[in-house]
Amino acid sequence: MRHGKKIMHLGRKTAHRKSMLANMACSLIEHKRINTTVTKAKALKQFVEPIITKSKEDSTHNRRLVFRELRNKYAVSELFRDIAQKVGDRPGGYTRIIKLGNRLGDNAEMAMIELVDFNETFTKDQKEKKKTRRRGGKKSSAATSKEPIDNITEAAEEEKVKESTKEKNSEKEKKSSPKGKVTKTSEKKEKSEDQDSDDEK
């Protein structure tokens, strides 16, 4: 009984299994997706994801740990240079396994394992969705921010109109005030003359 034995032996001894997983990991890093059997894909997922996590922090120690597993300096340099930048914000789950059906010769279950952030057709849809959400948020914020600005501008325009009307009224009063005084004095004079004429009568 194999209770508690979680390692996938893959019908190989330890040295052969490690070499095979290292070669498959290097191919995945280089080509970003590979086709293999479902069991090997699951074993590769367990093997390569801790290595990608180590690549997030670029230090000599981490590079040496990764090189001990991969044994390929070109794959290590590409992992730390290209893949680590794209995967930087993702907290795990760097690979995706997609089943492809059974193989013709031996009827083995086949699968494609790929790096999630390098699937252009799938990430384009996600980016577009995010953009629409961000634009919607920006519109709402812009609308809310425009409302007080519009109110302020309207109030300022109303104040300007009121000031201009007040100035015009004051100018009119100044112009009409001497004429008005003359007319009032003339009316008084006329009244006084009428009274005098009545008294004489």
- Biggest sheet, open or closed, and with what strands and sense? 3 strands, antiparallel
* Low-confidence residue ranges: none
Helix fraction?
A: over 70%
Might you state the CATH topology name of the largest domain?
Answer: 50s Ribosomal Protein L17, Chain: A
Structure explained in plain terms:
The protein contains 5 helices and 3 strands, in the order αβαααββα. It is mostly helical. It folds into 2 domains: 14-118, 50s Ribosomal Protein L17, Chain: A (Alpha-Beta Complex); 136-182. It has a 3-stranded antiparallel β-sheet. α1 (14-31) crosses α2 and α1 crosses α4 (73-87). The model has no long low-confidence stretch (mean pLDDT 81).
What tags apply to this protein structure?
single chain, 201 residues, mainly alpha, 50s Ribosomal Protein L17, Chain: A, 2 domains, three-stranded antiparallel β-sheet
Concise synopsis of the structure shown:
The chain is mainly alpha-helical and 201 residues long. The protein has helices spanning 14-31, 38-55, 60-70, 73-87, 120-200, and strands at residues 33-37, 95-102, 109-115. The protein folds into two domains: 14-118, Alpha-Beta Complex (50s Ribosomal Protein L17, Chain: A); 136-182.
List the helices and strands and how they pair.
Blueprint: H1 14-31, E1 33-37, H2 38-55, H3 60-70, H4 73-87, E2 95-102, E3 109-115, H5 120-200
Antiparallel strand pairs: 1-3, 2-3
Helix pairs in contact: 1-2, 1-4, 3-4
